[in-house]
Design brief:
Layout lengths: L1 H20 L3 E3 L1 H26 L1 H6 L4 H20 L4 E3 L2 H20 L6
Helix pairs in contact: 1-2, 1-5, 2-4, 4-5
Length: 120
């Protein structure tokens, strides 16, 4: 349970930092980041596997580079979903902001995750 909470906090912090660095990505404070991470988690858990399966030929055709497009679309979709349920908390202004935001958030999240020790 502690590990799940730690991952949640890491992703919220990563999203907030991403909003500070990437133009076109906006988060309204810590609460907005927390709500956006919930939307992001739902999109990645429920929609991303289906999209990945449907675009598998593009994945092979582009030697895996299409994954960046999928990441950007899931980031953007999380913004849309958050806008429906939590208006004004998380906003991504366009595909390129989503593309860069997904890359930056992945890097920041990876770096922060390394700092969390394993429970074992």
């Amino acid at each position: 349970m502690v590990r799940i909470l730690a991952r949640f906090l890491v992703n919220a912090l990563a999203l907030w930092l991403t909003a500070q660095v990437v133009p076109g990505v906006h988060v309204s404070g810590a609460g907005g980041a927390a709500l956006a991470v919930i939307a992001f988690g739902l999109v990645n858990a429920l929609i991303r596997p289906l999209v990945t399966c449907l675009t598998l030929p593009l994945f092979f055709l582009t030697l895996g580079l299409f994954t960046f497009v999928i990441n950007a679309l899931m980031f953007w979709l999380a913004s849309v979903l958050a806008g429906v349920f939590f208006p004004g908390e998380f906003l991504v202004e366009g595909f390129w902001a989503a593309f860069l935001g997904a890359i930056v958030m992945s890097i920041i999240s990876m770096v922060l995750s390394v700092l969390i020790p394993d429970e074992s």
